[in-house]
Design brief:
By secondary structure, the chain is of the alpha+beta class. It is built from 16 helices and seven strands. The protein has three domains: 63 residues, no CATH class; 140 residues, no CATH class; 120 residues, Arc Repressor Mutant, subunit A (Orthogonal Bundle).
Length: 330
């Protein structure tokens, strides 16, 4: 899948924190993501969801229950301006409706919705849009983080009546009831948790009408800018992805995007990227797919990715993943 979403380094930092006690080095968790340890000290750095998901995949390979723990660490403060606006909403229902209005600012890989069935309301997540191999991880991350957001916004624990997940029952199912503190079902049509409908009208302890209005407007502007940048970056990435066999170079890509090389470089820098970073990311994604799914020899994969020499591809793949192509395939 071609990713165009941008996000912050919050989740990556939380993953590194979660494994610090396990004595897992950051190099192993960042492998193949294109994120350097020096980037973690820069608050202005933005990464693509593909980079974030690579770090998540590395973490998931080490611990298959890490999604629940990571979500439990993602407090409302992790969401910047949107988190502030949620805290200042008049009621719990207002906060949830505001969150649903700006899914791009939440960084979710699901479609979120509220489902009112009378006595209770379900907060649901469905239509997952990322790597199938990480579907369970992302469902756990999404629902446990939404659970924490609800608690933070209310200033107290939101009592849940039920929770459901679309994946089969995992070996660590007991951990779900610890996190959600309610009966949990698996193998359902979607993911979600339920609470009594009366909570929607609950006033929030930090509500402030004037400041909330200002923050909600800033969220609207940020969302418009954010989604506009995503759409533009998606077009750039798609154009480059179509030419991996013969990359056009920065100036060639700029001509295709109907701008100068300087303008393209500046706009990519503004969204925390560069021509070489995009090229490396697309090549790495396609290389992993070809090595895992196709029976092509390594030299042929190198040709399809625009490398003039197999050795150059091998060196690049080691830099991206930490292992040679043949070892990755094995």
């Amino acid at each position: 899948m071609l990713h165009s979403h941008l996000t912050t380094l919050n989740a990556v930092s939380l993953i590194l924190d979660a494994f610090r006690e396990d004595d897992v080095g950051s190099a192993a968790l960042l492998a193949g993501s294109g994120i350097g340890e020096s980037d973690l000290a820069r608050p202005d750095v933005h990464i693509t969801t593909a980079q974030e998901m690579q770090v998540c995949a590395n973490a998931y390979a080490l611990r298959d229950d890490i999604g629940l723990e990571l979500g439990a660490r993602m407090h409302v403060s992790s969401y910047g301006m949107l988190g502030y606006a949620l805290l200042l909403s008049a009621t719990f229902g207002d906060a949830l409706r505001l969150a649903l209005r700006y899914p791009a600012l939440l960084g979710t890989l699901f479609q979120l919705r509220l489902e009112d069935d009378g006595d209770q309301v379900w907060f649901c997540a469905s239509h997952y849009t990322d790597r199938p191999a990480l579907a369970v991880f992302n469902a756990e991350l999404c629902m446990s983080s939404l659970r924490v957001i609800c608690n933070d916004v209310l200033g107290q624990r939101l009592p849940l009546t039920a929770a459901r997940f679309s994946h089969p029952t995992p070996a660590y199912a007991a951990s779900y009831e610890t996190v959600f503190q309610c009966p949990v079902r698996f193998g359902c049509a979607d993911n979600g948790f339920a609470f009594e409908r009366r909570w929607l009208a609950a006033p929030l302890p930090l509500a402030d009408v004037v400041t909330h209005a200002a923050m909600a407007e800033r969220c609207r502007r940020q969302n418009a800018e954010y989604t506009g940048n995503q759409a533009w970056l998606g077009r750039v990435r798609q154009a480059l992805a179509d030419q991996l066999h013969a990359p056009p170079g920065l100036d060639g890509l700029a001509r295709q995007m109907k701008c100068s090389g300087r303008t393209l470089r500046r706009r990519l820098q503004a969204v925390g990227s560069s021509y070489q970073q995009l090229l490396d990311e697309l090549r790495f994604d396609h290389a992993k797919h070809l090595l895992a799914e196709a029976q092509l020899p390594v030299y042929r994969i190198a040709e399809l990715l625009g490398f003039s020499e197999t050795a150059s591809f091998r060196h690049a793949f080691i830099r991206w993943s930490g292992v040679p192509p043949r070892e990755f395939r094995a």
